[in-house]
Amino acid sequence: MKFFVDTAEINDIKELAATGLLDGVTTNPSLIAKSGRDFLEVTKEICGIVDGPVSAEVIALDHEGMMREAEILRKIADNVCIKVPLTIDGLKTCKALTGDGTKVNVTLCFSANQALLAAKAGASFISPFIGRHDDNGFDGLELIRDIRLIYDNYNYATEILAASIRHGVHVLECARIGADVMTAPPAVIKGLVKHVLTDKGIEGFMADWAKTGQSL
Ligand code: G3P
Fold first, then answer.
1. For ligand 1, atom 6, which residue shows the shortest CA distance?
2. In b/e form, how buried is each residue of 185-198, taking b as 16+ CB within 10 angstroms?
3. Are the C-beta atoms of residues 131 and 164 closer than 8 Å to each other?
4. Taking the C-alpha atoms of 117, 120, 121 and 125 in order, what is their torsion angle to the nearest 10 degrees?
5. DSSP string, 107-135
6. Catalytic residue at 83?
7. Whether the CB of 183 sits within 6 Å of ligand 1
8. What is the pLDDT along the chain (216 residues), one digit of tens a residue?
9. Were 146 and a residue from 9, 58, 65, 112 both cysteine, which residue would form a disulfide, CB within 3.0 to 4.6 Å?
10. Cβ(69) to ligand 1 under 6 A?
């Protein structure tokens, strides 16, 4: 399973990239606003930190506008992945860009039918939002299961990028279902390593090692 981090905070991206466990980055207009940085500048900096895809989202809502913005964004670096919303104009843009060899992430997916359309449009990634789906009384993980089934039925190459991940159980269940990628905030990724028994075990080993009086 690939791990992307869902942030535009450079320090967090650098810290996670240094572990060697980070496969890519996703951003969106809200995360760019939160960073307080210039969109093009921060995206370029992120692309220099990770080798994998860096999703940068278009702002325009019409096809022509999306194509114009995608042209600006894809010039930033080879690993830029253009993020478009799941609308007719977004799908049209997806089809045009992927036909050109550009990676496209179709975002704001809340139904399996929408995911089917994105695959038909040749999307590199589909981003179903699990947490926001749960928040609205739906089952976000069921959505991932349905998309996995449909994509496998037809051997679609579109990768399922589970997004809006809120905690470790989302990550675990996505891995069980077979999501290709998950994108989560830095704190959720860092939290995956934590276990009280690991900490307790280290504490015990350290205490016993001290008793030996040895050093390495
Ligand atoms: O980047 C898309 C998605 O991961 C956003 O998540 O937490 O704002 O619902 P969230």
1. 164
2. bbebbeeeeeeeee
3. yes
4. 80
5. EEE-SHHHHHHHHHTT-SEEEEBHHHHHH
6. yes
7. yes
8. 999 999 999 999 999 999 999 999 999 999 999 999 999 999 999 999 999 999 999 999 999 999 999 999 999 999 999 999 999 999 999 999 999 899 999 999 999 999 999 999 999 999 999 999 999 999 999 999 999 999 999 999 999 999 999 999 999 999 999 999 999 999 999 999 999 999 999 999 999 999 999 999
9. 112
10. no
3-state secondary structure of 2: strand
Counting ligand 1 atoms within 8 A of each CB, the residue from 5, 13, 28 with the most, and so the one to mutate, is 28
- Give me the residue label for tokens 């210039």: 38
Q: Output the pTM of the full model.
A: 0.96
Active-site choice (2, 34, 83, 194): 83
**Mutate which of 86, 132, 135 to test ligand 1's pocket (most atoms within 8 Å of Cβ)?**
132
